[in-house]
Amino acid sequence: MKRFACFNLRTFGLSIACLDALIALCILGLSSFYLYNDFMDFTQWQQNDVQILSPFGAFVATLVDYVLVHEFSQAFYMILTVTVWVKALINLVVAGILVDGIKQRRLICIAPWLINAYVSMVIEVAIFVSLEVKIDEADASIDRRIARSVLFGVFIVLNALVAYGIYALYRMLKASTNENRALQESIVETSEGNLI
What we know:
Keywords: Membrane, Transmembrane, Transmembrane helix. This protein is mainly alpha-helical and 196 residues long.
């Protein structure tokens, strides 16, 4: 396979890597903005009169007090945003490594993107299945379930197609590397035979 749709595999890989990096940057920006605003709200929270010697201890005590007593849902969204921020950072780093791997024809740089994509798909499937298992009567309307299933199906199929395209690029680069290695070995053997 040398082409994916109308693209050369290298062009396709670079396009996907750049798109992945752009999406990761947008998510990082939005998550950072949300976390910054939440942290500014966090510094305004009421602190107990308990004297704690270290500033970090005061921070942790205030956070635990806030989570347990005040706004659990707000803390949940804060933790969820941190998780999304970390995932976006991983995607950004892996996309950068993918760009370098495609430009330099390094197989070891393409593998992290593939691993990240496959692990993400497994996690998405697990989340979808757990949501479907935990459906209650209020959320069991057939329209919502169909919409959620179609949306999940579209995204998982697109992710699988993109991952297959990058895997085809990986196989193509691996085959060309093996061909180049065999050609170099035959040239060395021929030149050694001519010298003797």
